[in-house]
Amino acid sequence: MDIAPERLVSMGYDSCAASCGRFMVLDRDILEFSCGISGLHVMPLKTAFEVYPHVRENLLFGLIPKDKNDFTKMASRVDPVGYYVRVEKGVKIADPMQAAFLFGGAHQDQLIHNIIELEEGASLDIVNGCANTHAGTSGRHIGITETYLGKGSSLGYTMIHNWGPDMEVYPVGAVQVGEGARYLSNYVSTSPVKRIETYPKATVGPHASARYYSIIYARQSSYFDTGAFVALEGEGSSGEIISRVVSEGGTVISRQTISGETKGCIGHMECSGLLLAENGVIHSIPELRGKHPDIDLSHEASIGRISDEEVSYLMTRGLGKEEARSLIIRGFLDVKIAGLPDRVKVIVDEVIEQAMSGKI
Questions:
Q1: Exposure string for 295-312, b = 16+ CB within 10 A, e = fewer
Q2: What is the Cα–Cα distance from 184 to 62, expressed in whole angstroms?
Q3: HSE of 57 in the Cβ direction (CA atoms, 13 Å)?
Q4: CB atoms within 10 A of CB 25
Q5: 242, 269, 278, 337: least surrounded by Cβ within 10 Å?
Q6: What's the rounded Cα separation, in Å, for the pair 203 and 345?
Q7: Does the pLDDT at position 187 exceed 70?
């Protein structure tokens, strides 16, 4: 495989780190899949169709319609390349699973379809990394992920994008969060990219929760149209969408929607933006929908620049101007995510540190 090990590490795929399972794809070829934990199943999706017939019959395009958009139509017409991950009832796994989806340019389009299924009371963390093998590679990555969380289960799903300036990326995601289940999504993108569009949806059941956190550093000429939709359909359900956006000349459209549809729903969203260049654009679009009188939904949004006073203060403490700016940006991107496992937090912090130091 023609990709530097440090590039794999920068997208969260570290062969030296503790892991409960691994899955790697290059273009349309599955290079690796493994699983070392009883009660955890990691396999190619096509294999799952043979081993577990319900995956094809009930789960494939069960949350995302085949005709949702042009990308899902394309994916429905070809053999799926991607993983099926299942955790059996009551199995709680400490070490994260690592997955890598690499674009090498063998084909213009890379079509990925993943399905995740957690049974009642199960728990798992997944670190998904996506990148092209070389920064100059051009093409289009389309990734579909359907996630089913059983009663009282818990999934932490971290996506790290490390693309190049000529890549177009179109993730399509949907999550069904069962009664009392917990879903935590983290999205990190700090490298240049031509275009990324994604708007995942979580449908949240009674006394369940869905939380989306995103960290985006938009380099010069990069374009992001991202966000999340949380539908609070179960009584006592909750949702949260938090984004931190930095534009260094790129464009970011942040779409956030929380819909409170039944009694006792609680939802909150925040979008904070930091503009570093005059040609950068941050467009925040928060939307709240209330469909029941007994709900509590709120949102906050802000866009600004680095404070001259903060820079001056840090310079009086011995830092140079660029060091001071870099420190302020690091602090801005340091989202305190409750419930994020230490093993995953280390990965996210390392990716941000590499981005700020110019290694990505």
A1: bebebebebeebeeeebe
A2: 21
A3: 5
A4: 23
A5: 278
A6: 26
A7: yes
Structure token pair of residue 266? 């609680």
Q: Within a 10 A sphere around the Cβ of 38, how many other Cβ atoms?
A: 8
User: How far apart are the C-alpha atoms of 61 and 115, rounded to whole Å?
Assistant: 9
Tokens of 249: 């000349």
Please report how many Cα atoms fall inside a 13 Å half-sphere around the Cα of residue 256, on the Cβ side: 27
Q: Cβ(358)–Cβ(19) under 8 Å?
A: no
Roughly what angle, to the nearest 10 degrees, separates helices 308-316 and 321-333? 120
Q: What's the rounded Cα separation, in Å, for the pair 233 and 251?
A: 33
> What does 193-214 look like in DSSP terms, one character per residue?
-SEEE---EEEE-TT-EEEEEE
CA distances for 57 relative to 178, 213, 259, angstroms: 20, 32, 30
In this prediction the pTM is 0.92
Boundaries of every domain in the chain: 5-307
Kindly state the DSSP code that residue 138 receives in the 8-state scheme: -
Residues 15-57 pLDDT 10s = 667 789 999 999 999 999 999 899 999 999 999 999 999 999 9
Closest Cα partner for 35 from 23, 49, 18? 23
Please state, in angstroms and rounded to a whole number, the distance separating the CA atoms of residues 236 and 79: 40
β-sheet bridge partners, residue 354: none
C-alpha gyration radius of the chain: 20
**Quick check: 70 and 108 in contact, CB under 8 A?**
no
d(CA 32, CA 100): 9
